[in-house]
Every structure is written in C-alpha cells, then in structure tokens.
Amino acid sequence: MGMDLYPRNKALGEFTADAFFWPWMLESGVGLPVGYGKGFTPGQYLQINRPDGMSLAHNDGARVTAKESKQMAQIARWVAAYQDSLYAEWERMPESERNDMAALERLVHCNKPVRRDFVARLVAFADWAEQSGGFRVH
User: Fold this and answer.
1) Taking all residues of the chain, what is their mean pLDDT, rounded to a whole number?
2) Contact, 9 vs 132, CB < 8 A?
3) CA dihedral sign of residues 128, 133, 134, 138
4) What is the rounded distance in angstroms from the CA atom of residue 13 to the CA atom of residue 35?
5) What residues have CB less than 8 Å from 137, skipping those under 6 apart?
6) How far apart are CA 24 and CA 107, in angstroms?
7) If we measure between CA atoms, which residue out of 117, 134, 131, 133 comes closest to residue 17?
8) Structure letter (DSSP) for residue 23
9) Residue pair 33/75 in contact by the 8 Å Cβ criterion
10) pTM of the entire structure?
C-alpha cells in the first residue's frame, strides 16, 4: 500500500509514494526530521511520538509541518547525491567485484546503490516537499 501526501499548498497537488519507496525514503535518513528511522533488524523502524499522535509509517493522516517538510527535502537531496555517487562508483567497479559483493550479501549487508527510479522519485519528492507548505500522510 502506498502513501498519498496532501500538501497545505493545494495548488501543488498530491504526491504519491508507493509501498516500497516510502519506507526506503524514510529509512534512508529523510525521516529523521519527523522522528522516523531504521530499527535494529531489517524491516523494523523506530519513531519518536509525534505531536498529533499519528505515524508517518501508516496512512492515518499524520501531519508534517512546513519546517519539517523543508528539512526532509534537504536531506532527500543529500541522499540522492550520495546515491548518484554510489552508483558512479558501482559502475566503475569490475564485474567480478560486484559479483563477489552479491555473494557476500547473503552473509552481511553490502551498501549497493538503490534503483535509479528511486533516486529520481527522491528528487521529485524534494522538489514537491519544498513547495508543499507541510503535508498530511494518507
């Protein structure tokens, strides 16, 4: 299930984040301004109680302020730039090293670049969030 983000700036229109993109984005650091981050194990997250008592991990109408939205946009840009750099390094890496990393990933986490469409979506979110004036998650 994806999340629909409804901005205070109604002229902007909603932003839809699919079920795989939204948690990845929040866990990549974009969720820190709203108290959301990775937990101890894969698929686990930790969140700080929000003033409205709602969760950004659920589509219950949690509110993100304009300030938080701008902070999220800035971090989204940093994460996108990092992912672009990681991808460039990945492309320069010999295929044998990439294959070794894929085999090693069964034992330990390897930091491989994320899908390119996620990076494009992250930049689109940053552009949207900067202009949103804050938003609600449904």
Assistant:
1) 90
2) yes
3) negative
4) 25
5) 3, 4, 5, 54, 56, 58, 59, 60, 61, 62, 64
6) 21
7) 117
8) H
9) yes
10) 0.89
SS3 33: helix
**Residue linked to tokens 């589509």:** 59
For 109-131, write each residue's pLDDT tens digit. Answer: 778 899 999 999 999 999 999 99
The DSSP secondary structure of 53-112, one letter per residue, reads S--TTTTS-EEE-HHHHHHHHHHHHHHHHHHHHHHHHHHHS-HHHHHHHHHHTTTS---P
Amino acid at position 52, single letter: D
Residue 41's pLDDT is 80
For residue 88, the model assigns a pLDDT of 96
Q: Structure tokens of 128?
A: 């949207």
